[in-house]
Amino acid sequence: MAAYTLLRRIAKPRIYPSQLLHSTTTRCYFTTSINPKTIATPPFRARSLASQADSVSLFNEMIVGNQRKYYMLGGKGGVGKTSCAASLAVKFANSGHPTIVVSTDPAHSLSDSFDQDLTGGMLVPIQGPSSPLFGLEINPEKTREDLRSASEANGGAGVKDAINSMGLGMVADQLGDLKLGELLDTPPPGFDEAIAISTVLQFVESPEYSKFTRIVFDTAPTGHTLRLLSLPDFMDTSIGKIMKLKSKISSATSAIKSMFGKEQTPLVDGGTTNKLEQLREQMGKVRDLFHDSEAMEFVIVTIPTVMAVRESSRLHASLKKENVPVHRVIVNQVLPPSATDCKFCSIRRKDQMRALDMIRKDPELAGLVVTEAPLFDVEIRGIPALQFMGEMVWK
User: Among 28, 104, 278, 307, which residue's CB has the most CB atoms within a 10 Å radius?
Assistant: First the structure.
């Protein structure tokens, strides 16, 4: 089978001997041409030992201009979204764009991809690229806890108990129907990602982060992403109803207490209302960002299998319905044309070609720019490997 290798740039480039793993059942050989002792030592240059599949990625279009642009990479689970997102972020940084790469997937793997701890909810500098590159794995649970604490201080269950004590059970039931507590305790799929994106918007709107011109999102698998698209509208409507109801409740309780000469104390803490209003505004910004074709692009990542292609087709249909800009699809893990030296490889290659043909004929995917990313013979982990992948994919 053909392989791809990394050459360390020293006085003379050295190619380390391949390590051969032989399967007597399939007569299939896999070559590994990277010395693990040097993989973490930059700089490297990429070299292909096989003919590459024809692909067009139009990367130059992605680096033109210094205005801020957002790229969301999404698709079926297990197709290599994190590696593609991380390699794109490294390529942006090496192309002169200060970049932030963010994981919005609750099951983070961005730290593993960079081989560096990016947890903690704060931007972490990533060493290696020529321009600043920062990584971030958002912790939506902490944000949700902060919002829940503010809501429970004098709102949420506290509001409902106070209303019940005054005999206004009907209003209390209406408040319960809004399920604010349930929304915070057991949020719907996509809620965590929306919180993550709104948190990132806080970062990029701050003057100290104004230098970043490229923001790359590594999203959760398709199902979460699709629900995320409709979440901003849902949150805007729900929070609007909650705030209106709280206002009506506050007016009603004030009037009743005045009748009985009781001291009027605010039923709802102003801080709670402010936090809800801030969340509502952030959800609106997320919604606007999804639809901004000048600042936003969703990149579909898939692999050459029938199931993955069909899911990608449905994803694009949903993105198009929501007016989310999509221009390209990355087909990852493609075997090279020369992968015919064993029966197993030959069969897999034929299956992949059928899947690629499906993409070309699919009414949802046919109009997109298709980039084929090769199946690498080593794990893509750490800056040198991500640079290598970026050179192969983002051209």
Answer: 104
Are the C-beta atoms of residues 338 and 51 closer than 8 Å to each other? yes
Q: Is 74:300 a contact under the CB 8 Å cutoff?
A: yes
The catalytic residues are: 105
DSSP string of 172-221?
A: HHHHHHH-HHHHHHSPPTTHHHHHHHHHHHHHHHSGGGTT--EEEEEPPP
Number of H helices, E strands in the chain: 13, 12
Torsion angles phi and psi, residue 358, rounded to 5: -60, -40
Measured N-to-C along each axis, helices 343-361 and 306-321 cross at an angle, to the nearest 10 degrees, of 20
Q: Fill in the amino acid letter for 305.
A: T
**Residues 319-333: pLDDT tens digits?**
998 889 999 999 999
pTM: 0.72
How do residues 217-275 score in pLDDT, each as one tens digit?
998 887 777 777 777 777 777 777 777 776 667 666 665 656 655 555 554 555 566 77
Burial class of residue 20 in the structure, from the number of CB atoms within 10 Å of its CB (0-12 exposed, 13-18 middle, 19+ buried): exposed
186, burial (CB in 10 Å: exposed 0-12, middle 13-18, buried 19+) = exposed
Place 81 in a pLDDT band, splitting at 50, 70 and 90: very high
pLDDT at residue 80 tops 60? yes
Q: Are the beta carbons of 331 and 303 closer than 8 angstroms?
A: yes
Residues in the chain, overall count: 395
Helix or strand holding residue 72 (H, E): strand 69-74
